[in-house]
Amino acid sequence: MTDTPPNTPETPAAPAKDTSRNGGTSNSVMTGAAIAISAAALVLAGLSFMGVGTEGKVRNYLLSNPQILDEMLQARQVAEEQNATAAIDKAAAENANLLAHDPRDPAVGPENAKVTVIQFFDYRCPGCKAVAAPYREMMARHPDVRFVFKEWPILDNGSTVTSNYAARAALAANAQGKYLAVHNALMAERSLDQQTVDEILTENGVNLAQAKQVMGSPDTVRQIADIHTIGMTLQLRGTPTFFVNGKTSASIDPADVEKMIQAAK
């Protein structure tokens, strides 16, 4: 998940194999070093308290067993992810109307489905792009599930508006019945700009002139603003974020989302 609040500079991408709630992003080197130093200090204090030995012996013990720090850092990350997931689920339970059916949202699958999956995403989010293909495959395996798409452009800043432009373009494509084709093409494009977005619309059979009218309409602007409000109210940490019947997935891995789908069924 790209851990970036609305209207802030884009967060650099990290390896897509990281499927934590950070969605492929990680702590900065300075933050990681600070945590490591703190962890080392705690280990030193703990081992000394337990009588492992003098400071020199403790130091030698740590040097011989550096995996202890890795285990501490991993445990801390797991705890933070669990706490974040619990906080989001609590906010979702207290504001259930925010995840209720909204006819403005693009969606596929039966409206009366037993299971509904909601995805919050940004077309420039590296984590979103990394999971786009397996997510489509998962959707195909569950035609009885309702999949809802929440356009949440959070990677723009003062000089960049491409995420918002792409989100409005996708909603305009939805108005012409071309949403999925445009959505998939936008996710597949590695480097988006406004010209590329327009080309994707045209290539997928969208009437560009009509699309521009929808993109600039107050209704479209309001829809995206409402999704920003939902994201902030639910304390979402970034994109992509997945909900299955009102419960958030602790990771961005579609395999984990699918497990939640199977459990909900």
Structure description:
- This protein is an alpha+beta fold and 265 residues long.
- 54% of the residues lie in helices and 8% in strands.
- The chain has 10 helices and 5 strands, in the order αααββαβαααααββα.
- Strands 1-3-2-4-5 form a 5-stranded mixed beta sheet, with helices on both faces.
- Helix 4 (126-141) links the parallel strand 2 (116-121) and strand 3 (146-151).
- Helix 5 runs antiparallel to helix 6 (179-188), helix 5 (162-175) runs parallel beside helix 7 (194-203) and helix 5 (162-175) packs across helix 8.
- The longest helix is centred in the N-terminal third of the chain and has 28 residues, at 67-94.
- Residues 5-18 and 21-33 have low confidence and may be disordered.
Summarize the structure.
By secondary structure, the chain is of the alpha+beta class. The protein has helices at residues 29-49, 55-64, 67-94, 126-141, 162-175, 179-188, 194-203, 208-215, 218-233, 254-264, and strands spanning 107-108, 116-121, 146-151, 241-244, 247-248.
List keywords for this structure.
single chain; 265 residues; alpha+beta; 5-stranded mixed beta sheet; 10 helices; globular
Tally the helices: 10
Report the span from N to C terminus: 26 Å
The rough form would be described as globular
Identify low-pLDDT runs: 5-18, 21-33
Beta fraction of the residues? 5-15%
- Secondary-structure element pattern, one letter each: HHHEEHEHHHHHEEH
Could you give the order of strands across the largest sheet? 1-3-2-4-5
**What class would the helix/strand composition place it in?**
alpha+beta
Mean pLDDT: 84
The strand count comes to 5
Largest sheet: 5 strands, mixed
